[in-house]
Every structure is written in C-alpha cells, then in structure tokens.
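Sequence in, structure out. Go.
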Amino acid sequence: MTSLVQMVQFRLSGLAGSPLQFVAARLAAMFGRTDLPSRSELTALRPATRVLILGFAAWIGLVGVMTLSAVISLELSTVTAPTWFGSRSPAAKASEARAAASFENIVQRPLFSRNRQGFVAAEPAAAPPPPMATLDSGMTLKGVFMSDGVAKAFLITTQNPLGVWVQLNGQIDGWRVAAVTPEHVVLEGQGEKLTVPLHASGR
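Output:
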C-alpha cells in the first residue's frame, strides 16, 4: 500500500515539475532508478563506457527524430490542398505543357531503336479474293420424286458418290436445283445452266 502511495506521489510530482524533469524521471524509471546518473557518476566510468553510453543515447535520439519526421511527412502527404487555396498560374500550366511535349518527343524517338524512329504498325495486307470454285458438271440423275407439290432429285456427284436427295431450290456442290421434271433436272450456278437427264449426265 505504501509503495502504491509513493508511486502516485512520484507521478504527481513529475507532472507538477517541468516537462524536462518529467522526461528525465521517466527515463530513470525505465532503468530502474529514481533519477538519472549524475555527472560525477558518469566521470567515474571508464572512457570507453562513457563513449558507448553517449553513442547509444545519441542513436536512440536519432531514431526517435527520424520516426517522428517520417510520421509527420506521411500525414502531410495525405493532405490535399483545398480548391480555394488558389488555382495554378498560367506560367505553371505552360511549364507542364512544355514538359509533356518533351516527353512526347522521347516517345516518338525511342532510345533503344536502331534508327530512333517510333514503332509504326504495318497495315495488314488485303486478303486475296477466294478463288472461284469450279462447278462439277459430271452429275448423274438417278431418280426423281414428285408428289403433292414436293419435287426432289437424287443426284450422284464427285463429292457425293453414294448420291443425295436434293429438293427444288436446294444446293449441291455450288449448283442450285432450278427445276425438277420427270425426265430431267435443271441446275444453275455462277451464271451457268446445266440440264441433267434421268439416268445420264450431260449439259
């Protein structure tokens, strides 16, 4: 109980004194002492020990100052100037425009290019037109189906050797079935007309 009262009295006395005395008392308390070492105690130490203690104290002070300055600069970097603080002068705007123009010159004349010319994308070459497909005229008509308005022709071609049924206006190998009769079919394609008789091939 007595130690608690003494501690409270010590703290109150530290607060009542000057701030420098309060800091000194706090430092002494960190080292387990009631006050800081006196000058006579420091002179009684070996010179190497004194230098070591003073260097250590200076290093602690430098770290504290650097930490404080870093915190202050960090806080100031997050603060933005208000809009009413003033707009930039025309001279500042002109200076920024000149700086941007100089950077544009760097982009146009790159340093690591052999001829110092900017990269120019080559225009894609126009794709050649697809070759005109040749129509197969060697078709064989093997059957015709006509019923209730539905007309189909069974044609055998080079691409379909087994044959395929094609309705009127249907497509086969580039040809369009233009007409279906019981005797023949008429095919049209690329401005040509091909008549294929039943069970035979021909134009």
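Check: The first helix runs from residue 2 to 16. The chain has five helices and seven strands.
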